[in-house]
Design a protein that fits this description.
mainly alpha, homodimer, DNA-binding, three-stranded antiparallel β-sheet
DNA sequence: ACATTGCATGCTGATATGGGCATATGATCG
DNA sequence: CGATCATATGCCCATATCAGCATGCAATGT
């Protein structure tokens, strides 16, 4: 088996930096493809392809307006990511890091003096 | 060019669900590889490989203890992800969604104005 | 009708992936 | 030392990716 498809979920879709850039660019509101092309300095086909991936995971919606296609951000699928990552929030807090070190040291000491572990 | 390496950053490393599972399993504290093998129901080599990726992006630290290698969570690299995702937090708030819809409708109406009578 | 603009899609090629399986390395025990 | 437990690596392979480039196609302008 190979790596999971980029269209599998938000995690995979957003692992690509360009796609994150696109989402960032859409925070300000709807934009036609050429706007994004100009903003990102990418070739138009690649932008369209990235947008396709984002659309498939529901991170953007499209709307036709004349000969343009206006893409709009829809962050809902990011909620899952946010929830998951938040689980680890304590981990990068300095205070927690210290606490963790202390706990680990305690464990090591215990394991050394008791003999009975687990 | 192909997809970015999984070891490029936390975004890519964590796009793989098994690796997320491993991190989840490590929230409770240090664990030897075989613990993870049992918990995840994966083959030992794959677990070791996933751990390698996690180590390369700094999401886990290792410590030798006899013939075991104890892996420990280090969520610091997740902070970047958290910060980025948080940027979009408003997006999945119901109230914001509604506001957004209204704004879009207004825009659509505006774009249409001046011509058709209604 | 024809040219043009705005986007999407198709194809090619180099590349890294992740699982399966075998094997190497390393520490510990008898 | 030889056996065994705990992990890491190596190799094979099917697969999806992403960039680049050409082309398809709908909407608009003249």
């Amino acid at each position: 088996m190979a790596r999971a498809a980029t269209t599998t979920d938000a995690f995979n879709a957003v692992a690509e930096p360009r796609r994150r850039d696109i989402l960032d660019a859409l925070v300000g509101g709807e934009r036609p493809v050429n706007d994004l092309v100009a903003l990102l300095g990418l070739a138009q086909p690649q932008v369209s392809k990235h947008l396709r991936v984002l659309r498939e995971v529901g991170l953007v919606d499209v709307r036709d307006e004349g000969r343009q296609r206006l893409y709009r951000l829809n962050g809902t699928p990011l909620k899952t990511m946010h929830d998951w990552v938040s689980t680890f929030e304590r981990t990068w807090t300095e205070r927690f890091d210290r606490l963790d070190s202390v706990l680990t040291e305690l464990k090591e000491k215990e394991a050394r003096d008791g003999g009975t572990d687990q």
